[in-house]
Design a protein that fits this description.
There is one protein chain. By secondary structure, the chain is an alpha+beta fold. It has one domain. Helices cover 39% and strands 27% of the residues. It is built from 3 helices and 6 strands, in the order ααβββββαβ. Helix 3 links the parallel strand 5 and strand 6. Helix 2 crosses helix 3. The longest helix is centred in the N-terminal third of the chain and has 23 residues.
């Protein structure tokens, strides 16, 4: 078997796992979008939040290998924030904006609302000039 054939076989062998991970990451990004819309509290939805899935600019292979990042641009009113997420040991690990990062063991509503508010504060800090890197572990 040639190296090319070995590559094709490896890609096929892990296709199901890769696709399941991609679906999970996209579902997480979609849930984060909904959490951002609800971050102002019950009955106060943020209507100027949009989600646009995109190819992660740091990915150097397609399809994205298992453990790779999946990305989306989240428009938050006047700005857009690139959010990258991947699965690591069953948790969602990600990055957003200018140095923000997170790790969520669970993706329940409360965890996502907390992350959404953290993101909004982090992005506001960036534009306000405080630009402090916010690294928090949720859960």
């Amino acid at each position: 078997m040639s190296e090319f054939d070995e590559l094709q076989a490896a890609i096929r062998r892990h296709a199901h796992e890769r696709q399941a991970e991609e679906r999970a990451c996209e579902a997480f990004l979609n849930a984060l979008y909904h959490a951002l819309r609800a971050a102002s509290g019950p009955g106060l939805p943020l209507n100027n939040v949009t989600l646009d899935f995109t190819v992660d600019p740091a990915n150097r292979l397609r399809p994205v290998p298992t453990g790779g990042f999946h990305a989306a641009w989240l428009r938050l009113g006047l700005c857009e924030v690139l959010v990258r997420v991947r699965r690591v040991g069953g948790a969602f690990q990600g990055e957003y904006g200018d140095g923000g990062s997170f790790r969520l063991e669970g993706a329940g509503e409360d965890e996502l609302i907390t992350l959404a508010r953290q993101m909004l504060r982090g992005v506001a800090d960036t534009y306000a000039g405080s630009g402090q890197e916010r690294v928090r572990r949720l859960n």
